[in-house]
Amino acid sequence: MSVSLKAKIAEVFEEPGCDKNQGKSEKERKKGCTKQLSPGAAAGGCAFDGAKIALQPIVDVAHLVHGPIACEGNSWDNRHSASSGSQIYRTGFTTDITELDVIYGGEKRLFKSVREIIEKYDPPAVFVYQTCVTALIGDDIEAVCQRASEKFGKPVIPVNSPGFAGPKNLGNKLGAESVLDYVIGTREPEYTTPCDINIIGEYNLSGELWQVKPLLDALGIRILSCISGDGRYNEIASAHRAKVNMMVCSKSMINIATKMQQRYGIPYFEGSFYGIGDMSDTLRQMATLLVQQGAPVDLLERTERLIEVEEARAWKRIAEYKKRLTGKRVLLITGGVKSWSVVAALQEAGLEIVGTSIKKSTKEDKEKIKEIMGDDAHMIDDMTPREMYAMLRDAKADIMLSGGRSQFVALKARMPWLDINQERHHPYGGYEGMVELVHEIDRALFNPVWQQVRIAAPWELADDAVAA
């Protein structure tokens, strides 16, 4: 591992925005929160994968993976991050290094690949991702990117996050470091307003950002940049001129918020777009911070009026579902900000949470779960598929909300399941998203297929009759 990468990892572990990190001794803090993984042993995602999924939603740049083609195949289009314009981010670019490149080095191939992308697609920038193989053979992607940038007159951004550096979450932060080092602050916006904000750690999954943007537009709040959902390179490059930063998923990109506060004096807060109450609280926090930064004072009053109207509209639409859903039990297998923000959203619809996973949750996330669910909150650190199956089979839950990898456990138990993670096809952000989430849960729970699959097959009935 290169000296620069080691130094960057050590810097990421010194995270001032993490209370758990700051509570450790200096020696323990340097070890970080997770152990480094060996190549090929990165279960749940490696550092390269984390960097790629964190930055790929920047839609107008070319994302070039410097490594074997399998690395690009593993990370390409693995989240439903939607774009309102350019589609180049959905094109898979890779240097596809061979055995000869391993022997002689792949730097020339990388330079030629960057040139080909710029000539054919002319993107505003090219992001180059380091992988295990090219890092192990010593390819200096920083030097190649600098030379290519000088030669072609376009930003070529190195993302030094090879898989063996650590798990996916570390890769998220290393990708964020590349944005901090090479992108943010390199351009000036065409104009600024007193109500400019950045949204950090929001990936516009299935278009969720678009459910929130109309609310901000109605208040006159401008999203100067989103890092990185439906993001544009020039917008992110000028993000240092925002008045306030909103942190959506602190476990992935908290280092952007803390370092922008240190470098540019931009205050940040952590909020959630999931659930009616959390959406309202987010708008209030955003308006309060903007007013403190110089926005018109009437923004606070206008925010309260908007919240009153939107909440009334959402509750009216949810009321018809709440009668059917009250008392239904939900097993929530997710993590991070969704481990508590989705809990609050489901409780608003009358659903009972029998357990929520905290595998990828921070200390702050856990505290919020206790605050919402009380001292008897059933927080699951790491539930095995066998335990999930037993809980569903014994009817301790009526439906499971999780990612795609857990769906077959629910289907085997012949219980309803709904995708709540990044692969989902329905947006659940904002007031409109909460109504959509409740609607989808209602559809899943009362789908007549579950009555059919639970009926014994004719041959099973015949066997029972013979046995009797």
Automatic annotation (TrEMBL):
It holds the Pfam family Oxidored_nitro. The keyword NAD does not apply. PROSITE patterns: NITROGENASE_1_1, NITROGENASE_1_2. The keyword Ribosomal protein does not apply. Belongs to the NifD/NifK/NifE/NifN family. This protein may play a role in the biosynthesis of the prosthetic group of nitrogenase (FeMo cofactor). This is Nitrogenase iron-molybdenum cofactor biosynthesis protein NifE. It comes from Variovorax ginsengisoli. The lineage of its organism: Bacteria, Pseudomonadati, Pseudomonadota, Betaproteobacteria, Burkholderiales.
